[in-house]
Amino acid sequence: MSNRRDFIKTTALGAIGASTLLSCKNASENKLEETSAALLSQKKPLIISTWNHGLPANEETWKQLKNGKPTLDAIEAGMKIPEADPKIRSVGYGGYPDREGKVTLDACIMDHNSDCGSVCFLEGIMHPISVAKLVLEKTPHVMLSGEGALQFALEEGFKEENLLTPEAEADWKKWLEESKYKPIINIENHDTISMLVIDDNGNISGGCTTSGAAWKMHGRVGDSPIIGAGLFLDNEVGGAAATGLGEAVMRTAGSAMVVELMRHGRTPLEACKEVVERIYNKHRNREDMEYLQVGFIAVNKKGEHAGYSLRSGFNYAVYDEDKGNRMEDAQFKMAWDN
Fold first, then answer.
1. Residue 192 known to be catalytic
2. Distance (Å, rounded) from C-alpha 193 to C-alpha 96?
3. pTM of the full predicted structure?
4. Tens-digit pLDDT profile for the chain (338 aa)?
């Protein structure tokens, strides 16, 4: 009798186990199908980049992608546009100098395989994004800095040149009269251009380039060249990039945190907002709160995108097949007069 009971019990458990296994398998298959459907329906390619100078950068990147260029080549080509524009006072040639009158540049680039290259505290080279790309492609390292980055650039055929324009020099000399340091990001100090790209294959890559905060101490490096702070992406989840006061972004590993929150189900907007809230809570009783601005852009694997900033005034450029190249205003926590 006991053998019969054992047999019935075992058979019942086996049936339950098989049913559960089948149910799990079906759920897994359904989830995979949903993910695949989402990826197939997403907008591709999609480009999102910070500030008004993102418009010409997007334009060139889009052109390169449509001509079949690899995504990192397209990002490099797009970012070289603001780097070479002397009217943009926070990126490359024409960028505001540090308090010693020297223009020092930071940049990084990252692909969907998590391969990345970065340069910081680089002087005399107009296109740091190109040097960062070569760090990725030709070295076993992620970051080169200062004289070492310059040496590498010169060995790779880059030309050393003076990046301090007469206009930027005049502004620097005027600043020296009072020597007050308040990097108010939304005025003549727009800071970083950061870019995120979803290519035709649904893969995410990104880059950042900047001359950093105007009138900074010589040797200061912000968040832009630091993977995980100014830029981060995980091709299974999405990507994020930052702009604004680099010290605040670095204190929270900002872009990496945005991506991690998206991994746990947050939308790009929700993730950007949560990290901005963290920054606000850390800085609300600090002296730099008076002029603090940070902003994030983010995209996920569904092709959803968003931007969010601490204070008003942050906007970003978006380019897709449906609506073309345009500016979008980011949502924000507070206005400047709060």
1. yes
2. 14
3. 0.86
4. 444 444 344 444 444 444 444 444 454 455 445 544 444 456 689 999 999 999 999 999 999 999 999 999 999 999 999 999 999 989 999 999 999 999 999 999 999 999 999 999 999 999 999 999 999 999 999 999 999 999 999 999 999 999 999 999 999 999 998 877 665 554 445 578 999 999 999 999 999 999 999 999 999 999 999 999 999 999 999 999 999 999 999 999 999 999 999 999 999 999 999 999 999 999 999 988 988 999 999 999 999 999 999 999 999 999 999 999 999 999 999 998 76
Catalytic residue selected from 61, 71, 165, 192: 192
Question: What's the 3-state SS for the chain?
Answer: CHHHHHHHHHHHHHHHHHHHHHHHHHHHHHHHHHHHHHHHHCCCCEEEEECCCHHHHHHHHHHHHHCCCCHHHHHHHHHHHHHCCCCCCCCCCCCCCCCCCCCEEEEEEECCCCCEEEEEEEECCCCHHHHHHHHHHHCCCCEEEHHHHHHHHHHCCCCCCCCCCHHHHHHHHHHHCCCCCCCCCCCCCCCCEEEEEECCCCCEEEEEEECCCCCCCCCCCCCCCCECCCEEEECCCEEEEEEECHHHHHHCCHHHHHHHHHHCCCCHHHHHHHHHHHHHHHHCCCHHHHCCCEEEEEEECCCCEEEEEEECCCEEEEEECCCEEEEEECEEEECCCC
